[in-house]
């Protein structure tokens, strides 16, 4: 059989998948180029949603820790945390860690320059952090955060900053964004909304239950610690965590998933018809 006649779209995801990703990249690039404030607001919304779900998880842990074994509480909290990705994606909000995959595909196909990608990543991270900051500033004027929830917040910050070295954080960051983005790749192939939601949730549930490192979640958590004057929050350990988690997240989502599937779907029959 002539290899040129192999139906590559049946073997891998094919040109439709690549075109979908590239169209998404172009839309995001146009947004940040010509509608700067709107793009920033979308990134802020993602951080705000992640903050809301973080507080929800703190409440779950504070409520169940005394009644259930630790493993069961962790599982329930992980499932609850997975709601965040569903809400972010279905509201078209901008989350940095999913952009790692999209824009690495764009870099591979040369539809966007590295400097523009760096600008988008920076803007998206700032927006995500602002969203978490706004959420916790609002909560500071309420009684939502109970003493028990603040204990859980302190425990989370302690675990993130004082129990693991840089390399361990980086490796856990790789696994975190691998599970998030492999879920997104699978969800792209599914039309049914409920099935999409389930696929997205199980990837996030795994990374949350395993306590892997997610740079945006950690930023939101540290923002909460800053607003509530956490005794566990220190600048240098927090910075080390964010740098390690950020690099790991890019490797896991951008290289292992984004670059991997960009290469697999770069079929020979398209070599003379590069995406523009």
Fold and architecture overview:
Helix content is 76%, strand content 0%. Mean pLDDT is 89; it is low at 268-276. It has twelve helices and no strands. It has a single domain (12-270), classed as Glycerol uptake facilitator protein. It starts with 7 loop residues before the first helix and ends in a 12-residue tail after the last helix. With 276 residues, the protein is mostly helical.
Brief descriptors of the model:
276 residues; mainly alpha; Glycerol uptake facilitator protein; 76% helix
Topology:
Layout: H1 8-11, H2 15-34, H3 36-64, H4 70-81, H5 83-90, H6 96-108, H7 114-140, H8 147-162, H9 166-187, H10 193-209, H11 215-227, H12 235-264
Helix pairs in contact: 2-3, 2-6, 3-4, 3-5, 3-7, 3-8, 3-11, 4-10, 6-7, 6-12, 7-11, 8-11, 9-10, 9-12, 11-12
Low-confidence region ranges? 268-276
At the third CATH level, what is the topology name? Glycerol uptake facilitator protein
Number of β-strand runs: 0
Q: Between the first and last Cα atoms, what is the distance in angstroms?
A: 31 Å
CATH architecture: Up-down Bundle
Helix % is over 70%
Indicate the mean pLDDT: 89
Oligomer category: single chain
CATH top level is Mainly Alpha
């Amino acid at each position: 059989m002539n290899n040129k006649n192999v139906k590559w779209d049946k073997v891998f995801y094919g040109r439709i998948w690549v075109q979908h990703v590239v169209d998404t990249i172009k839309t995001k690039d146009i947004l940040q180029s010509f509608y700067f404030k709107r793009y920033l607001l979308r990134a802020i919304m993602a951080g705000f949603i992640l903050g809301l779900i973080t507080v929800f998880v703190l409440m779950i842990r504070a409520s169940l820790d005394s009644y259930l074994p630790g493993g069961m509480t962790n599982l329930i909290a992980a499932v609850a945390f997975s709601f965040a990705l569903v809400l972010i994606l279905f509201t078209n909000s901008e989350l940095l860690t999913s952009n790692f995959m999209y824009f690495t595909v764009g870099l591979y196909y040369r539809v966007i320059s590295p400097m523009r990608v760096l600008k988008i990543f920076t803007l998206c991270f700032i927006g995500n952090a602002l969203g978490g900051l706004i959420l916790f500033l609002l909560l500071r004027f309420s009684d939502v955060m109970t003493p028990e929830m603040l204990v859980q917040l302190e425990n989370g910050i302690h675990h993130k900053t004082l129990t693991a070295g840089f390399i361990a954080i980086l490796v856990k960051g790789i696994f975190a964004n691998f599970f998030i983005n492999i879920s997104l790749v699978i969800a792209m192939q599914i039309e049914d909304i409920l099935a999409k939601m389930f696929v997205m949730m199980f990837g996030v549930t795994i990374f949350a239950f395993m306590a892997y490192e997610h740079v945006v979640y950690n930023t939101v958590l540290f923002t909460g610690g800053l607003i509530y004057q956490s005794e566990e929050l220190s600048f240098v350990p927090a910075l080390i965590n964010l740098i390690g988690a950020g690099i790991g997240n890019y490797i896991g989502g951008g290289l292992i998933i984004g670059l991997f599937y960009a290469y697999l779907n770069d079929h020979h029959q398209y070599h003379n018809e590069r995406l523009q």
